[in-house]
Write a structure and sequence with these properties.
It contains four helices and no strands. With 98 residues, the chain is mainly alpha-helical.
Amino acid sequence: MSPKDWEQALTEDYWDYRWRQIMEPLCDTFQKWKAGELSHEAVDQAIDRAYQEKVGINSLLAQRQDRASGLIRCWDPEWFQKWIAEHRPSAQVEGEPC
């Protein structure tokens, strides 16, 4: 796998991981609201939190892929270690320590 392909796989998988972290709680909030368990205010706050998190991840992933992959490694080392265990980079992929 080329360095570019590896970086693309990393950023795409991280986007999916973070998207699920943002959207799954929001979906639960909507379900609770629909069932009459939450107020409109609580839903509004949940939407605002999800939006703020989405803006943050969009900012990260708007970087060049090589930069984004380095930032992911430094900002979320636990996720990165789990991911890299299954996606070992080739010798061509270089990385600076955080």
